[in-house]
Amino acid sequence: MANSRKQLKPGAVLVLGFLSIIALGSLLLFLPFSRKAGAACSYLDCLFVAVSSVCVTGLTTVDIATTFTVLGRVVLAILIQIGGLGFATFALFILSLLGKRLSFSSMSLAKEAMNYDSGKGIVSLVVSVMRLAFAIELSGAVLLYFPYRRICTGFWKAAGMALFHSVSAFNNAGFDLNGDFSSLAVFHGNVYVNIVVAVLIILGGLGFFVMRDIIHNGRWNKLSFHTKMVLTMTAILVIGGMLLLIVSGTGPLDAFFLSVSARTAGFSTMPVENLSNSSSLVMVFLMFIGANPGSTGGGVKTTTIFVIFIAMATVVSGKKPTIFKRRIPQDSIIKALTVFVMAIIVILLATFGIMLVEGNRFSTLDILFEVVSAAATVGLSRSLTPLLHMASKIMIMIVMFFGRLGPLTIITMFTKVKPERLEYLEENVLIG
Length: 432
Fold this sequence. Notes:
By secondary structure, the protein is an all-alpha fold. Helix content is 65%, strand content 1%. A two-stranded antiparallel ribbon has the order 1-2.
């Protein structure tokens, strides 16, 4: 038994951990105390919501506001928090609070979960991450309390709504309690709420290493190479996405909010199905890229796209892959291409599978939008999720899980690296 435990890789432990949290969460959501009397909610619906919350996606087959009780919403918020920050991060934080001695395997697991390249200082990093996350979420709740106080009756209801949506926004989950699958439509045109939620989404999507680097170093020339890449890509995508959406016929405020939210948050202040085809295609592109490594968001990640574009530029220019006076290693380029290609394959297979199941009920763009939203753990939907057949919902759940864990984590579960004993001669391959 001890040997089998030792043989479990950190990636396998992460997968099993997420599956365990999902199973427990689905059972808690299915219990009578979590569901409102008379609410139509099967166990499959509870499982779907549990997968979506732990994978911080936001897609749902039922109306959260009219289906779940206050206790059910608390369960949902906890699942979102665990999913966003990672169960390994939570476990390590609790153990450190209790003063327990941490094993090497525990620290390796946390390193894998946080996509950290070193185990050095992992405990202090986890503690600072948790404190920073709770501080930002509490600040967001205070800021959102005032607009919710104007539309909610009573202090506690407004406070609960503000806290839930702050947690959901920072963890890039996209779940809402406003009812009728309306997301944040009640605040359409409200500049204050749009900016507060957008800032929470951006902070959650930046990644904790980046926020820590900015807090400690501040000035651009002192920031790490990773932070410079993340900030550059974030600015390009937010501004570029906003401009493309405006050109496609979306209003400036809606374009700004959707450009931010499309990168894995899943909130919207207008019906997404009302967007033009060109705007929807822009959203698919933004969703696919997603947030940054080490963040609460999903997607193939900004650094992956950044590295691929730098590699493409080197093919044209013939120069070494360098940026910000740093050279990008060949291994990073190979990993970036692997993540990119695997994401494309998963999205195409899932889209094809759902098209087979659903027939001609939905357009290709609608299904592609839904699949990319699931794979990038975004949560935006063109009102398809509740209407899908059971087989399609299962495929969406699998895609969400794949998107949350990432292709490299899942690959390492089934592969065993063996040292190469032979060196082979290089041979050029004709490309293009």
